[in-house]
Amino acid sequence: MTYVIISCILMYFVVHWHLLFIVNFYTMSLAVIKTGGKQYVVAPKQEIIIEKLKGEEGDTIEFSDVLLVSDAKGKTVEVGAPLVKGKKVTGTIIAQQKGKKVTVVKYKAKVRYKKTMGHRQYETKVRIERIG
Predict the structure, then answer these.
(1) Strands (DSSP E) along the chain, which ranges?
(2) How many CB atoms lie within 10 A of CB 45?
(3) DSSP 113
(4) Interior CA angle at 95 toward 93 and 101, to 5°?
(5) Is 55 left (phi over 0), alpha (psi -120 to 50) or beta?
(6) Of 38, 35, 91, 22, the residue nearest 61 (C-alpha)
(7) Are 65 and 83 in contact (CB under 8 A)?
(8) Which of 12, 78, 87, 104 is most buried when burial is the number of CB atoms within 10 A of its CB?
(9) What does pTM read for this prediction?
(10) What is the pLDDT of residues 64-86, one digit of tens each?
(11) All structural domains of the chain with their residue ranges
């Protein structure tokens, strides 16, 4: 009986292991930034992959389009209208890379026309250093 209970508990953690990271993620200070036409929820020491930005590996980037800033416990939350004034998120470029390949197929029925092409989008990997 105890073997069944222990195996059920282990199975729960195997399936829901990502929840451990989410709990740790939300105990840090958070910010919502806008770059490349998208919005990202970021925290210090987090690595994100965003649309390509100018710069080399090791360069520092400042994101000035900050939409929301929260402290570590979530007690103070600053929401911008539309941006939070005086707040910036600083990050470091880790890599300039290409994303996964997307296959594009053109097909016309009854004329034996089929063309296949691939595309890889350029992207930048950034480690968030500081919110403030």
Answers:
(1) 30-35, 38-42, 47-51, 60-63, 66-70, 77-79, 89-98, 102-108, 113-119, 122-131
(2) 10
(3) E
(4) 135
(5) left
(6) 91
(7) yes
(8) 87
(9) 0.72
(10) 999 999 887 777 888 888 899 99
(11) 2-131
